[in-house]
Amino acid sequence: MGLFSKEACVFCGTEVGMLKRSKLQTKEYICNDCKKKTNPFARMDYTSKDNAQHMMDTLAQEAADFEASFDSAENRFQSAERSFKTWDLGSHRVQYRCNTRLGAFQIISENHSSYEHVPVFYFDSMIPYQFADDNPQLADFRRNGVMDEDAEYVTVKEETDMDGKLTGCTVIIPYNDICIREIRLNGNVSDDSGKNVFYDLAERMNSDRKVWIDRGIFDAERKNKMQIRNLGDTAAAALKATVTGGNVEEAVKQGIDTANAIEEGKVKQGFFGKLFRK
After folding, report:
1. pLDDT value of position 113
2. Which of 105, 102, 103, 85 is nearest to 94 (CA)?
3. What residue segments make up the domains of the chain, in order of their start?
4. If you ran DSSP here, which 8-state letter would residue 156 be given?
5. pLDDT at 222 (0 to 100)
6. Can you tell me the mean pLDDT for 222-235?
7. What per-residue confidence (pLDDT) applies to 143?
8. In angstroms, how far apart are the furthest CA atoms of the chain?
9. Long-range contacts, stretch 100-108, CB < 8 angstroms, 24+ apart
């Protein structure tokens, strides 16, 4: 029993001892090899069998979609974000990159080099887990938490010994996910130079989140202006068709198609005048 007992992995059926398995929230076991197919930051005691299977099924596609998002970037700045930035967090190295247009980011930690996939995280989930409550009365708190530009959710915790001497730091990223309540990146440091790297990473992530929010607000305002203009142009086209004996239904259909294209981001503001030139 205990250390020397073996349990079957619920996914592959392999019987493994305590040191080569983890217990899932659903009291089943997952072996270390199958665990490497999941998100390295997921806690297995928060993870059910279905949650783990979902990660195995979707992580590769999410990573591929994230990579493809750089190809559709609209300017040089977004294209440059394709490269990972590196932070030496004391005893190990962490790499980070994001696409602020998509609102997503990746983290690679040397501690998780054996995992099969680099997971993708999303800024709209980078809030304290307590916002995840299903109570509809708390839904507004979650929305406000996501869109709070002033919130700096990524923080740094300093660790000291009994003499008050700095021994380590941890970057703490709250995350609103059933399997991940927070992401922790820790390392041993003993001076301000090492400590500042942790704060620099936290500041970068908070800054990227703010850029994502600002761009979302800008895009929403831009779409609203474009929709208003489209509504006016559609009404004018329908009126013209009525007076001249043209096809009113076709004018309205074209307006609806354009409205859908605007909502899907297929119409760029710079070409808006050309699109509606009569």
Report:
1. 87
2. 85
3. 58-215, 217-275
4. E
5. 54
6. 65
7. 65
8. 89
9. 100/208, 100/211, 100/212, 100/215, 101/69, 101/73, 101/74, 101/212, 101/215, 102/66, 102/69, 103/212, 103/216, 104/66, 104/69, 105/205, 105/208, 106/63, 106/66, 107/41, 107/183, 107/185, 108/84
Contact partners, residue 145, CB within 8 Å, separation at least 6: 127, 128, 131, 151
Distances (CA, A) of 117 to 36, 62, 96, 110, 190: 8, 10, 14, 13, 32
Q: What is the pLDDT of residues 132-170, one digit of tens each?
A: 555 656 555 666 677 777 889 999 999 999 999 999 999
What's the number of CA atoms in the CB half-sphere (13 Å) around residue 122? 10
Contacts of 114 (CB under 8 A, 6+ apart): 36
* pLDDT band at 39; cut points 50, 70, 90: very high
**SS3 category, 126:** coil
Query: Distance between CA atoms of 80 and 82, rounded to whole angstroms?
Result: 5
DSSP 45-88: GG--HHHHHHHHHHHHHHHHHHHHHHHT-SSHHHHHTTSPEEEE
How far is the C-alpha of 45 from the C-alpha of 31, rounded, in Å?
A: 14
Write out the two tokens for 144.
């406000």
What is the spatial distance between Cα 214 and Cα 191, in angstroms, rounded to a whole number? 35
In DSSP terms, which residues pair with 150 in a beta bridge? none
Model confidence at 5: pLDDT above 90: no
- Residue 115 clears pLDDT 90, i.e. is over it: yes
